[in-house]
Amino acid sequence: MTNEVLTSIGNGLLYASSIMLFVVIVYYHLTARWWATGEGRHIMAWTAVTWAIMAYLTAYALGWFHTDVRLGLRCLIFAAFLWLAIWRFVLIARAQRLGQAAGRDPDEPAIHVTIHGDEGFVKSNAELNDQDQPPHPSLGPTT
Q1: pTM to 2 decimals?
Q2: For the segment 93-123, what is each residue's pLDDT rounded down to a tens digit?
Q3: Which residues are CB-contacts of 24 (< 8 A; sequence separation ≥ 6)?
């Protein structure tokens, strides 16, 4: 394949990814109480910043930026991404610490994600192990 073909394919995937992330943000905002938990707020913020990166790359690929604007947005977007990466580390470290304090095996993940048919949902370890414990409220609907 030539460089032009690969560039066109890459740009098409970039544009489609940017649009899909925007759809995810709108859908999540309209259908979930994401603001009710720290984890939900983190998922929304992470998705929004990931979309901002994709939108930035899309605008750059289309030649829509002047240098000063582009450099300012780049700094802002990547500062937000760094902040979210730190936030994600804190959430993971907290979950691990709480799990160890509760006596959970350190090699066992704190949360398992399972998708059943068309109605994807998250189950906690307790549910997966058929224990009679309620799931964490931030895990969303379970059946």
Answers
A1: 0.62
A2: 888 888 777 777 666 665 555 555 554 445 4
A3: 47, 51
